[in-house]
């Protein structure tokens, strides 16, 4: 079994002692990392005013740093990133070709214009750069967005999540403690090591800590998740981890929860107009399901098709299911592949349905993916297990029947045809949906804009105001 | 023994010609040769009798059985038995449930009349009255109920083994259950219903306690109501999805809720009375006590508070089992000592699955041994390929049960087992040895993985939940 040493990166320091061993995913790898309990003081930033050094930087300095860092993240030229890619190959949900493509795309995440777009859209550069004065009723208010000491419990299904975390941390002038996910044990560390090599004494480098501990380690987490040491926690997905983090919350500690989510598609009757529209809608549906092997919250899992539920409708849904399955199989190899670790519980569910008249299972023989076409207006009972390029097509009589199934756990909704979007987007939102896209574009787009129905970057900041009034009144509400 | 092992595999009623000791003394080669012959026969007969098997075999192109391992692709996951559309039950379309079920059984269901049936209990009763089927229901983590198509002939076969299994093998304890001389006590919260355990109680009443049914004592006297379980499964699933608030209870559901609430109150009152009855009222008597640990632990905690310990005789038969973690529940520290302090008798255990007529009792050496009509397999947990039938192997347990003639005997479990194929256990049995460490693959997973997509969440509080809805 391979064993990987994962140093603790504590604000520019590389710590490799007090090692403890952890099991990696699928039992294929183990890794060793310093015991965070013995390095507690290295992990936390006890003094909140120690963020001051970040305020000597201009936004241009920060952008220059991030753009430069981006150029260094290519796995062909960066041995740390190459090692992270190697470690990821054995542990994740996607093929080697896809993993390589994803790593090779990392530098483009740090393009200056993309970072500037994110800053401008989410916050407004001026608020990060200094105090912004605004005239309000009877007073002048100056507002500035400050950074915060923040722990990031990140998801491990894409290295871009760590890149985004580091970028946001720098742009917000914050201090980050990144908890490594066990399903991507090395990339965050590789990123921090690259920062140390690039600019060892730079304040941005000095405000990133990357550590591994087992999620739910009560002794460590109850000390860390304390307003003495942190103002904010950014936590990604995972039902159990989310619940355990919520136990530590108290006054003074703000949770920015990127809850676990699932996504869906709504395909209107227009898709069945002709062979051409059917093929086009199927191809787009396949993109939403299959890109990155359905490993993300934005991938579609249940697809509602307005085919009707009479015999003709069910036949049409089954035909459409076949087209979607074929289209999944023809997705580009570096974007989608048979799943390297197909979920055995999901396989058992598919095998159980295969010979039932009530569901049609297309594919799913080994790890190639599958489309389950419900023969009645009802999703499979294991809809939450859908993954590994397995989707469920549910025939419905009307779009309203599809909308009824959306919940607060629904993130992205891919809609076909485009004309349907403005008609139903309010209803999607009211029922819990958080992002509406044209069918086929669920996995496109960048980080700018709201996410999971919140503005994470705004929430990562501490919004401070300076009120100025000429007349002494004692109350802002007594200005008559 | 006046019959051969081949006859035994073909005809469960010949078990009566065997002693417990003889059953486990047949050399493995002889057992496996007979198993292969019987398997080929079962495959030929049942492929034409059961639609599901024919479709599956055609689909994966299994046309003949030459070796035991050839059957493993035809071993079915438990999910097969919940592969119907839940809409049939929601909409009360029980003729559609019949059609679904007809693919799983050799019994002809075409004449089963479900006119006027408007509940699951009604459907189960219709099948009981009009067919030999005796469906076994259970509710999985997804909240959807499964229906396993056991029928009268297999029930009889299974009970034959049940009595032999709990009789003595060499120095192992003998329950004397079949003789009718011991009363049967169990901590089960219900007395009747189409679930595995209440079904066993029904069969014991029929076979052992006919005319004196009150000698089978269950803690709860109520009925395992399938409609209730269905409702709580629905609620669990809705809660897991965060949709509980959106769920509107129909008047039918409200009736069920009221019934459940009533039953729960009875259970609370019953516990102390039953505790007096089983621990003290049986003083000096030889009894059969079925008390799986998940039931025994809270019972023992209460007994300790009350200062009671088991007074029944030392030769009583205590069937406990389900060690900590086997079903995903971890027990509180000191649970075993607690249980032993209240019931200090020797604790027996079995390893079995609803799908099999032949469970395996824990032997004197702490291992398990399946009877000859169960063909055992271990599969690679990732590829489902059979592991070699030699040496010591660990893998996913699958089995083919040769006794059933009306449903397919091939099943694949979620359990991780270790089998020593060389056999020859200290207890005296020559059959292959199932080691005592039995795990669930579902519990062996990495629990520190985080992705942004939602993972399923299992809730184990159906009753509280059902009662909490307003």
What would a concise description of this structure say?
The complex is a heterodimer of chains A (480) and B (470). With 480 residues, chain A is of the alpha/beta class. Helices cover 34% and strands 22% of the residues of chain A.
What distinguishing features does this structure have?
heterodimer; A: alpha/beta; seven-stranded mixed β-sheet; globular; B: 470 residues; six-stranded mixed β-sheet
Largest sheet: number of strands, sense, barrel closure of chain A: 7 strands, mixed
- The first-to-last residue Cα distance of chain B is 62 Å
Radius of gyration based on Cα positions of chain B: 23 Å
Largest interface: A-B, 58 and 48 residues
Residue-averaged pLDDT of chain A, rounded?
91
Pick out the low-confidence regions of chain A: none
Strand fraction of chain A equals: 15-25%
Number of strands of chain A: 20
The number of helical segments of chain A is 17
What's the oligomerization state? Answer: heterodimer
The general outline of chain B is globular
Structural class of chain A: alpha/beta
Q: How much helicity do the residues of chain A have?
A: 25-40%
What does this structure look like?
The complex is a heterodimer of chains A (480) and B (470). With 480 residues, chain A is α/β, with parallel strands linked by helices. Chain A has 17 helices and 20 strands. Chain A has a seven-stranded mixed beta sheet with strand order 3-2-10-9-8-11-12, sandwiched between helices. In chain A, β4 and β5 (29-34) form a beta hairpin. In chain A, α12 (275-290) packs across α13 (311-329). The model of chain A has no long low-confidence stretch (mean pLDDT 91). Chain B is built from 14 helices and 17 strands. In chain B, a hairpin with an 8-residue loop joins β14 and β15. The N and C termini of chain B lie far apart (62 Å). The model of chain B is unreliable at 454-467 (pLDDT under 50). The interface between A and B is large, with 58 and 48 residues.
């Amino acid at each position: 079994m391979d064993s990987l040493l994962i140093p603790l990166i504590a604000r520019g320091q590389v710590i490799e002692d007090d090692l403890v061993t952890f099991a990696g995913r699928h039992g294929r790898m183990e890794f060793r990392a310093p015991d965070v309990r013995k390095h507690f003081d290295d992990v936390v930033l006890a003094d909140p005013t120690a963020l001051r050094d970040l305020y000597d930087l201009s936004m241009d300095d920060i952008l220059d740093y991030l753009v430069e860092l981006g150029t260094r993240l290519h796995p062909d030229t960066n041995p740390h990133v190459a090692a992270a890619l190697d470690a990821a190959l054995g542990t994740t949900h996607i093929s080697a070709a896809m993993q390589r493509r994803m790593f090779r795309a990392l530098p483009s995440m740090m393009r200056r214009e993309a970072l500037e777009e994110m800053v401008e859209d989410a916050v407004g550069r001026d608020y990060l750069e200094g105090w912004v004065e605004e005239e309000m009723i009877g007073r002048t208010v100056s507002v500035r967005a400050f950074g915060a000491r923040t722990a990031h419990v990140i998801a491990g299904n894409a290295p871009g999540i760590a890149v985004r975390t580091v970028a946001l941390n720098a742009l917000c002038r914050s201090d980050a403690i990144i908890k490594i996910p066990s399903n991507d044990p090395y990339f965050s560390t590789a990123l921090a090591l690259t920062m140390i090599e690039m600019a060892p004494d730079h304040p941005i480098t000095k405000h990133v800590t990357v550590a591994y501990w087992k999620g739910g380690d009560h002794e460590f987490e109850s000390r860390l998740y304390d307003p003495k040491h942190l103002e904010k926690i950014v936590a990604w997905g995972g039902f159990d981890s989310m619940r355990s983090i919520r136990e530590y919350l108290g006054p003074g500690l703000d949770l920015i929860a990127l809850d676990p989510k699932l996504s869906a598609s709504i395909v209107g009757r227009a898709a069945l107009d002709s062979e051409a529209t059917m093929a086009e809608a199927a191809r787009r549906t396949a993109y939403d399901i299959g890109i990155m092997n359905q490993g993300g919250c934005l991938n579609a899992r249940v697809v509602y098709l307005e085919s009707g539920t009479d015999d003709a409708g069910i036949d049409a849904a089954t035909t459409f299911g076949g087209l979607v399955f074929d289209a999944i199989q023809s997705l580009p190899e570096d974007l989608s592949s048979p799943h390297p670790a197909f979920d055995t519980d999901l396989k058992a569910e598919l095998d159980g349905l295969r010979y039932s008249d009530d569901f049609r299972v297309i594919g799913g023989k080994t790890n190639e993916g599958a489309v389950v076409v419900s023969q009645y207006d009802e999703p499979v009972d294991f809809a939450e297990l859908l993954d590994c390029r397995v989707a469920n097509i549910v025939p419905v009589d009307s779009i309203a029947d599809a909308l009824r199934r959306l919940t607060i756990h629904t993130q992205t909704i891919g809609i076909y045809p485009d004309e349907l979007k403005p008609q139903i987007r309010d209803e999607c939102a009211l029922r819990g949906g958080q992002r509406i896209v044209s069918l086929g574009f669920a996995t496109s787009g960048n980080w700018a804009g709201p996410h999971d129905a919140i503005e994470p970057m705004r929430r990562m900041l501490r919004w401070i105001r300076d009120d100025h009034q000429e007349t002494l009144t004692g109350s802002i509400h007594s200005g008559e | 023994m006046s019959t051969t092992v081949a006859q035994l595999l073909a005809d469960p009623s010949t078990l009566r010609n065997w002693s417990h000791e003889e059953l486990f003394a047949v050399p493995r080669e002889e057992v496996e040769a007979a198993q292969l012959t019987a398997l080929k026969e079962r495959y030929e007969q049942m492929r034409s009798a059961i639609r599901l098997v024919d479709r599956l075999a055609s689909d994966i192109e299994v046309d003949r059985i030459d070796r035991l391992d050839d059957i493993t692709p035809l071993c079915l996951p438990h999910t097969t038995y919940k592969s119907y559309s839940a809409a049939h039950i929601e909409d009360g379309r029980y003729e559609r449930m019949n059609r679904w079920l007809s693919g799983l059984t050799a019994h002809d269901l075409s004449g089963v009349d479900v006119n006027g049936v408007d509940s699951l209990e009604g459907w189960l009763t219709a099948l009981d009255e009009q067919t030999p089927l005796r469906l076994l229901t259970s509710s999985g983590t997804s909240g959807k109920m499964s229906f396993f198509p056991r029928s009268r002939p297999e029930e009889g076969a299974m009970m034959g083994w049940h009595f032999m299994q709990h009789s003595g093998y060499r120095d192992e304890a003998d329950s004397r259950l079949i003789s009718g001389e011991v009363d049967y006590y169990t901590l089960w919260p219900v007395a009747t219903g189409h679930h595995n355990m209440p079904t066993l109680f029904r069969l014991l009443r029929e076979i052992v306690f006919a005319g004196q049914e009150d000698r089978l004592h269950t803690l709860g006297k109520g009925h395992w109501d399938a409609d209730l379980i269905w409702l709580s499964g629905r609620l669990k699933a809705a809660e897991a999805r965060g949709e509980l608030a959106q769920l509107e209870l129909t008047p039918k559901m409200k009736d069920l809720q009221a019934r459940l609430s009533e039953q729960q109150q009875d259970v609370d009152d019953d516990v102390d009375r039953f505790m007096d009855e089983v621990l003290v009222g049986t003083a000096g008597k030889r009894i059969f006590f079925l008390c799986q640990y998940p039931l025994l632990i809270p019972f023992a905690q209460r007994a300790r508070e009350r200062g009671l310990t088991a007074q029944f005789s030392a030769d009583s038969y205590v069937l406990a089992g389900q060690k900590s973690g086997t079903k995903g529940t971890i027990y509180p520290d000191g649970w075993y000592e607690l249980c032993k302090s209240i019931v200090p008798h020797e604790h027996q255990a079995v390893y079995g699955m609803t799908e099999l007529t032949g469970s395996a009792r824990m032997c004197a050496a702490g291992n398990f041994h399946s009877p000859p009509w169960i063909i055992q397999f271990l599969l690679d947990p990732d590829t489902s390929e059979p592991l070699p039938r030699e040496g010591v192997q660990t893998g996913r347990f699958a089995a083919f049960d040769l006794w059933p003639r009306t449903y397919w005997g091939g099943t694949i479990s979620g359990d991780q087992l270790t089998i020593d194929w060389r056999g020859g256990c200290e207890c005296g049995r020559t059959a292959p040895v199932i080691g005592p460490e039995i795990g669930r693959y579902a519990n062996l997973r990495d629990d520190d993985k985080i992705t942004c997509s939602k993972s399923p969440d299992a809730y184990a509080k159906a009753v509280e939940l059902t009662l909490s809805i307003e």
